[in-house]
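Dear colleague,

Thank you for sharing your sequence with our group. We've completed the structure prediction you requested, and as agreed, I am returning the results in plain text so they can be pasted directly into your records. Please verify that the sequence below matches your submission; if there's any discrepancy, let me know and we will rerun it promptly.
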Amino acid sequence: MSLLGRAAPAPEQSAEALIDDLGRRMLKRRVDALKSLPTFPESVIRINQIITQDGPKESLRKIADAIETDPVLCARILRLVNSAFYGVSGAIATVFDALLMLGLDIVKGLILSTTVSDVFAGRNAALNGLWEHSYGAAVAAGALARTLGMSKVEEISAAALMHDIGKMVLASQLEDEYRAVVAHAVERRCTVRQAERQLLGVTHDEIGHWLVLRWKLPSSLAEPIAWHHEPAKAGRFTDSAAVVHVADLMIRGYGFGFAGDRVMPALDDAAWRHLGLNADKLRTAVRRLQLDLHEALRNVHLIAGA
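Please find the predicted structure tokens below.
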């Protein structure tokens, strides 16, 4: 017995636990360094400074001015807000009006996620189709949230857009290892999350959580990203996390994009009950997803192409 009155762990178990803990710490340090993530454009840094210093309501005009100094970012924001996804095709001509409609949280989320996707696009075959999956999940989340009569639909869509950003980081920081993860998931017909845990000892949602904390994203985005596989752990953001969780499965079932595996993950029963879903509501959401996705793709050809 140990001094605490409990049996000491077997030496081999203790050694395995120590190696696993050291491996996770080393990986976390590698990911936390994020050396291959992009240096954000000066305009993005300035936007964050304005929000921090002035607060969101007082800074809309300043933020709009900062976005308009970056032609790519400006085009991306206007292209999104004028897509059929937001139902105002051709009606928004200024970044200021776009900010009023989208809200700062979704604009910040879009800036960060699309900046990362621009850098990672085409770098790693394991990521082929991941951006489409993420965008499709955002459309699915919006369709589901509207079907359920939820508020802050745009914010939920932004969280869904970024829900798999941890996969982008893993594939860039551990390129060869993540190729092996995807191959393992496909060959063994398991989820990519199971393959990540088996081969890396860490999952993309954990990495996503570290990342959003580093970027200091608002909790309304950070918590659904961190807990999209376990929505009940998202606290007061359980509603949003549950929608992102179901939206992830909706777009997988629809067959749009590639999330890193060829199997359908299990639906979280608690999320289904929490949202009060039933077959009729789900069918309505899927019909909306189909219409919204087809229309949005016809109008914007995916945000990443902006």
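Summary note from our side: The radius of gyration is 20 Å.

Kind regards,
the structure core
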